Structures are given as structure tokens and as C-alpha cells.
Amino acid sequence: MYTRPQEIFTFLQPLRLPGIIALLLTFWVIKNFDKNLLKMPSISFVVKFGGLCLVSFLWSVHTISITIGITWLLQYLPVAIAVTLLVRNLKKYKVFISLWCISHFFVFLIIFKNGGKGSGDFLADENDAALGVAMVLPIILYFSYWPNITPKHKFLLKTLFLIACVAIIATRSRGGLLGLVSAAGMLWLFSKSKLKILFTGSLLVLLAGSILLSYLPEGYLEDVQGISDPNDSTRSERIETWEISWIMFKDNPIWGVGAGNFPWNVNSYQDQASWWYPDARSLHGRQTHSLYFQLLADLALVGMLIYITFIITTASRLFKTQRSIFKSQNPDPNLIGLGLMCKALYISIFPFLVSGAFISVGYYPHIVMWGTLSYATLATIETITKKCN
């Protein structure tokens, strides 16, 4: 889903690789399906949210809700189940995380090649690409701290981390920059060596700051400064669509207007906005440019409850598990590594929540993969703990 080789090697496009892979995964999942999988929070979340998106076509004005629901249930769900079935022990877990990091390396290369744009689909534009990269930053960094990791692998992962940071800057995305800052801030906040990191970071900025500035994309600083500019056109449009989204939510507070249906209902609500005037331009077809306002308008309280509850409960379990590991006496080295990955995963949700405040990412697979990796990590910890006991 992330590297999308058909976007680079165009001769592969007629093969419809994503569809073929999804179909093969579906058959494999059906063959190996265990009903207990539905009890996994990561799986039940996809079923509940995807199911809600699908049935929302009953009160939608556009059939996009059917497409979104089918995508979640027939594309994202098989991937989530497949990862859950495959990543059941430490060896497979480490292999999967390694492949996850390698696949993102190709995403970074595509961003450089495309002048800041990603590999297509949910990583197509600069904002989407930057958010996806920001989420993987903590995973790459903490994987490099795994006990007994070889110096070679540590060096490669640290280098990959730096490349990822540069890739975010290459997108010139202001929302992506906020995601990078939030990831860096959370990494620092949850670090044991705050003063050391602060000193090292400040020193690097002083030594390499002027060099870095010379390599920044042309106009990058002006774009960043535009974040707080009240006259910035994109900022103004976001505020306008957010207000419409809020009005839409108040009119449909329980079920919303249907998954993906905000753009097709704008015309019916924009004349109620405070900024509207008779000759105001139509915003028909525009997105909300915000995860939160997207969910509020589309799926209202029911959708928000499913989505936010899943994030909070998952992040809470990750935090409590890693704290328990680091408080225990003489923990298994691999448990320490998995504890670090728990920390990486609950930190990685912050870039999603921060950058997502300015991007319509509610239906992207980021949250599905984050949840699937989180519970795969927790399941691996449980397996090792049982063996130790």
C-alpha cells in the first residue's frame, strides 16, 4: 500500500497490483481465519468503522460512502488480519518491522524523486506524504535502540531516521512540519536524557543550521511563515470549511451526513456560515482539511466515538505495557526492545493527530496499520512473558 511500485514502473499499472494483492490476501485470510481474531481490538475497530462507513450510504447523497466502506472491509481488513496472523513471535515481529522500515526507505526516495510528492493514493500529495513519514519516525529511531542490535544495523537505522526528516522537509508541507515537530517533541519528552538530547540538538543546529538553510527548497521558509498569516488563502479556506463542518455536525449530530459526503453537502450548508455572502464562491467538492472536522461532519458522534476510543485505549495499553516492562527487575532484553517499540508506537500517533488537524486523513490506512502494529507488539510481548513465566 505504501511503496506502490506501479506508480514508478508504469508498465505495471494494467496489472492492478493492489487489487490482486488484496484479493490474494482475502483468500488467504479466509483459509486461515479464526473467529477469535474478531476479539482483537485492532480487527474489531476496522470492522466497526468500516461497517459504519458502508451502511452510511443509506443516508448519504453520494455513493462514495460505499467505496470507503468496501475499501476498509475488503482491502484494509485483510491486511490487518494477515499481519496479526503472521506476526505471532519475536523473530517474525523483527522481520516485519525491518521490512516496514525498508519499505519506507523507498517511500522517501519517491518523495525526493517526485519533488516532495509521495507514491500515490493516500501518499499522493505533499501533506499526505509528510504525515505518513512523520508517523514512522519514532519506529525507526527506537528500533535502532533494540538491545544487542549490531552497530551496522544501528547506523543504518539512524541514517534512515535522518533521511526521513529530510524527506518531510522536502515535501514543503506546513502540516508535515508540525508533525515532525510534534514527533521530535514527544521523543524528547519521553526520553530519559532530556538535557543531553537538548544540548546535542542545539549544538547540531548551531553547527549545521547554516548549511541546512542553504539546501532548503526554494520558498520553504516563506511557506512555513505563512502558517500564522491570517491572509493566507489556504488558511482562510480551512477555517471556512471547518465552520461548515461544524454546522453540518449540529444538523446531523448522531450519524452525520455519511462517510466521505462532506464535499457533496457543502452547497446545502455554506449559506449558514458567518462568512457567507450572496456572491460567495461555491465550495462544492472541497474537503474539510481536518481529520476531526471530517469525522464530525461525515460520521458525527458515532464515528468519532469509535475512532477516538480506539486511539485512546490503544495508546493507553502501549504506555502501561512499556512502563511495566521498564519497571520490572532484570527484564528479558527482547522485552526491553518490545517496550521501546510500545513507546515508539504511542509517540507515532501524535504526528497523526497533529498533522491530521489540517489534513482529511480519517479514511486513510495509517490508523489501521498503527493499530495492527500496536496489537502485534502487545501480542508478542504476551507470548514472551508466558515463556518467561
TrEMBL record:
Q: Which domain of life is it from?
A: Bacteria
Q: What is its main location?
A: membrane
Annotated transmembrane regions: 12-30, 42-60, 66-86, 93-111, 131-148, 155-170, 198-216, 291-314, 335-361
Compartment(s) where it occurs, according to its Swiss-Prot or TrEMBL record: Membrane
InterPro entries named among the record's database cross-references: O-antigen_ligase-rel_domated, WaaL-like
Q: Does the entry feature the keyword Amino-acid biosynthesis, yes or no?
A: no
Membrane association type: Multi-pass membrane protein
Signal sequence interval, chain numbering: none
Q: Which UniProt keywords apply?
A: Membrane, Transmembrane, Transmembrane helix
GO cellular-component term (any)? membrane
Boundaries of every O-antigen ligase-related domain copy = 160-308
PANTHER family the record matches:
LIPOPOLYSACCHARIDE BIOSYNTHESIS PROTEIN PA4999-RELATED, TEICHURONIC ACID BIOSYNTHESIS PROTEIN TUAE
| Protein's name in the database | O-antigen polymerase
Question: What species was this sequence derived from?
Answer: Saccharophagus degradans (strain 2-40 / ATCC 43961 / DSM 17024)
